[in-house]
Amino acid sequence: MKYLLFLCMLSVISPLKSWAGLPLEQVVDKIQQKYNATKTLETDFVQSAYNKSINQTQQAKGKMYVKKPGMMRWDYNPPDEQSFIVNDKTFWWYTPKTKQVTVKKTEKAFESHLPLAFISGIGQLSKDFNVAFAEAEQGQGTYELELIPKKPQVNLQKMLLLVDDAQFDIRRVVLYDFYGNTTKIEFLNHKKNQMLKDELFVFEAPFGVQVVEQ
User: Fold this and answer.
1) What single string gives the DSSP state of each residue in 126-142?
2) Which residue has the higher pLDDT, 97 or 13?
3) Average pLDDT of the segment spanning 62-76
4) In this structure, which topology does domain 24-193 adopt according to CATH?
5) What are the Cα distances from residue 8, in Å, to 17, 60, 78, 95, 205?
6) What pTM did the predictor assign?
7) What pLDDT, in 10s, does the model give residues 109-166?
């Protein structure tokens, strides 16, 4: 899934390295507290995916919905229209252009997509990642963390997580794989804890769409 980051975090916290703001442990605690308090999220996103093998960057925009625990939806805008939909049982990847939807069990999908598990509300920062401040100088009004999975992942070497220092909302995620490819996702216009119906996280294949089960 070349576009899926998502998205969007920690464990044996590495040696404390304090910047001008809060020390690392407090930043991690505040991110976790904010994350735990957010039950639903609707946000716009802007994605930039770099493919090293062909030296090409592909841009995309869309909207992400999250309802904890375990429900998530990414809708990409045309011209590269597609949707990723997840609930507690099923994962769907639908591409209207190819008239095909790939279906697999959520547990199987999350095995190889740790960021998905975190964002959808079934992952834990302190359980899944080692965390440190990113090497780059911390910017004004933000903290940037480097997150390395405790358990080796097939398609994730590390993540960079940028949060603001006021609300500790996630502003940007950058995903790195082992082949030099990167996916940067910026999140805009957060709407938190508003009602999202469960039906939003279920996909019914339109007539004529091929269903591929994995």
Assistant:
1) HHHEEEEE-SSPPPTTE
2) 97
3) 93
4) outer membrane lipoprotein receptor (LolB), chain A (2.50.20)
5) 23, 17, 23, 22, 27
6) 0.82
7) 665 555 665 665 555 676 788 999 997 656 678 999 999 988 888 788 998 999 998 8
Separation between Cα atoms, residue 67 and residue 194, nearest integer Å? 10
The CA distances from residue 87 to 64, 123, 198, in Å, are: 14, 14, 9
Phi, psi (degrees; rounded to nearest 5) at 199: -60, -25
Alpha-carbon distance 81 to 133, whole Å?
Answer: 35
- CA distance linking residue 174 with residue 7, whole number of Å: 8
Mean pLDDT, residues 58-73: 93
In the chain, where are the structural domains located? 24-193
Indicate the helix (H) or strand (E) that contains 25.
helix 24-37
Q: DSSP letter string over 141-177?
A: TEEEEEEEESS--SS-SEEEEEEETTT--EEEEEEE-
